[in-house]
């Protein structure tokens, strides 16, 4: 449990209160809020299969199961290791998975029928902020390409086909990669070759020369440095500080049929994220757990530095980054802002994945389960923002606030 005495006291107090309420009402602890108590609050489905890809940011799903937070809320989370994001997509759509640790943009792509089958989808909550990176090959670094500007310069001088990998066409990593290249003056879809590679296969593919660079979640960026085959050109938090990343995603149909199950799972994962962020010791314990073969299957030393904010770029530079991967951050991480979902749609339009402007706000309102999240947060005494929109200034100085998504999408110099 947390080494933060105040947090520990709050957790103990909440457990006592929940236990007393449960004894009085016969309900599962944590599922007693009258706001949704239309009959029984018992989870409709007690065993929940949640897909994940071997990435550090699957940790709150894994730890909710390992630490037993799921049982506390009356469900059993079965973390299910998947080979690729396309596999996650297909299994969510056909019902083999109930939920998934999943790319924000993948959920929106499926909802709109781009990048695969069309099905109404739901984002229950955000799982993490930050913690991805763009890696360039050691061969490129040896030629002086160590950041966006020097890469653009090399590409302009040394003409050949440059290949960059992302993890899914509509996903977060594709959008970070495209945004970063475009900010450096490189049109990713016209001046480079873009391929899709599952996260755990990135390092092996770079080792044999299949790509010049890739964008992926940890621990694979740090793994490339440890293996001496790549360097970190930029972290995604330097593209957009506290950017949305993975979500707890499911289908709209599952939410409609199993609202109590959704709330129970959200509570368990929210508490796991809270536990991870509570102390350095918890983060180290998390790293030791998710490094195991059943989850990420890598050395714990590939995980436990960057989740503590200790970075190196593979060229001798080291730094402490306060904007490293966060899973809770006093509740700031998990709220499903409508503007976050809308941003991915603007980039899908920018790069030609969407041919026409969608109704940005309406789509986000359909997908992001804001009311459900507020119920869960209220029951757990987790603060929620007053506004469903948030603003941020990205690396190129352009501000995103969700107010005029059409103008924002059309306003970029480099686009399809």
SSE map:
Layout: H1 5-25, E1 47-52, H2 59-66, H3 69-72, E2 76-81, H4 85-94, E3 99-103, H5 104-112, E4 121-126, E5 132-137, H6 138-142, H7 148-157, E6 163-166, H8 172-183, E7 193-196, H9 202-207, E8 213-217, H10 220-226, E9 230-235, H11 236-239, E10 246-251, H12 252-257, H13 259-278, H14 280-290, E11 310-312, E12 318-320, H15 338-350, H16 360-367, H17 370-379, E13 392-393, E14 399-400, H18 405-410
Parallel strand pairs: 1-2, 1-3, 6-7, 6-8
Antiparallel strand pairs: 3-10, 4-10, 5-8, 5-9, 11-12, 13-14
Helix pairs in contact: 2-13, 5-15, 13-14, 13-17, 15-16
Mean pLDDT reading: 92
| Binned strand content | 15-25%
Specify the biggest β-sheet. 5 strands, mixed
Q: What's the count of strands? A: 14
Strand arrangement in the largest pleated sheet: 2-1-3-10-4
Termini, distance in Å?
50 Å
Q: Indicate the low-confidence ranges by residue numbers.
A: 1-38
Envelope shape:
globular
Indicate the radius of gyration in whole angstroms.
21 Å
User: What structural class results from the helix and strand content?
Assistant: alpha/beta
> What is the tally of helical segments?
18
Helix content: 40-55%
Describe the structure.
- With 416 residues, this protein is an alpha/beta fold.
- The chain has helices spanning 5-25, 59-66, 69-72, 85-94, 104-112, 138-142, 148-157, 172-183, 202-207, 220-226, 236-239, 252-257, 259-278, 280-290, 338-350, 360-367, 370-379, 405-410, and strands at residues 47-52, 76-81, 99-103, 121-126, 132-137, 163-166, 193-196, 213-217, 230-235, 246-251, 310-312, 318-320, 392-393, 399-400.
- A 5-stranded mixed β-sheet has the order 2-1-3-10-4, with helices on both faces.
- Strand 13 and strand 14 form a beta hairpin.
- Helix 2 packs across helix 13 (259-278).
- The longest helix has 21 residues, at 5-25.
């Amino acid at each position: 449990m947390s080494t933060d005495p105040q947090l520990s006291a709050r957790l103990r107090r909440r457990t006592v209160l929940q236990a007393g309420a449960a004894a009085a009402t016969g309900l599962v602890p944590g599922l007693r809020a009258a706001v949704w108590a239309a009959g029984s609050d018992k989870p409709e489905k007690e065993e929940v299969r949640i897909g994940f890809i071997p990435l550090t940011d699957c940790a709150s799903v894994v730890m909710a199961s390992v630490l037993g937070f799921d049982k506390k809320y009356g469900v059993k989370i079965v973390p299910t290791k998947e080979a690729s994001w396309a596999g996650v997509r297909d299994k969510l759509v056909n019902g083999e998975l109930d939920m998934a640790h999943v790319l924000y943009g993948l959920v929106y792509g499926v909802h709109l029928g781009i990048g695969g089958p069309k099905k109404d989808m739901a984002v229950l909550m955000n799982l993490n902020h930050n913690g991805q990176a763009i890696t360039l090959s050691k061969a490129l670094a040896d030629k002086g390409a160590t950041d966006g500007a020097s890469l653009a310069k090399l590409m302009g001088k040394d003409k050949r086909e440059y290949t960059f990998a992302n993890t899914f066409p509509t996903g977060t990593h594709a959008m970070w990669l495209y945004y970063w290249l475009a900010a450096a003056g490189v049109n990713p879809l016209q001046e480079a070759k873009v391929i899709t590679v599952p996260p755990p296969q990135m390092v092996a593919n770079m080792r044999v020369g299949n790509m010049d660079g890739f964008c992926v979640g940890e621990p694979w960026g740090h793994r490339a440095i440890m293996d001496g085959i790549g360097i970190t050109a930029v972290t995604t938090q330097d593209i957009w500080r506290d950017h949305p990343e993975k979500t707890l995603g499911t289908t709209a149909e599952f939410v409609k049929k199993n609202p109590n199950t959704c709330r129970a799972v959200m509570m368990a994962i929210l508490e796991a994220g809270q536990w991870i962020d509570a102390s350095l010791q918890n983060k180290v314990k998390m790293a030791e757990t998710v490094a195991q073969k059943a989850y990420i299957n890598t050395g714990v030393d590939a995980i436990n530095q960057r989740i503590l904010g200790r970075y190196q770029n593979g060229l001798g530079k080291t730094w402490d980054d306060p904007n490293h991967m966060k899973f809770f951050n006093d509740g700031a991480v998990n709220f499903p802002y409508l503007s976050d979902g809308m941003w991915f749609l603007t980039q899908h339009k920018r790069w030609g994945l969407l041919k026409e402007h969608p109704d940005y706000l309406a789509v986000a309102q359909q997908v992001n389960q804001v009311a459900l999240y507020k119920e869960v947060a209220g029951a757990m005494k987790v603060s929620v923002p007053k506004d469903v929109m948030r603003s941020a200034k990205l690396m190129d100085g352009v501000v995103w606030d969700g107010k005029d998504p059409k103008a924002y999408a059309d306003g970029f110099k480099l686009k399809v």
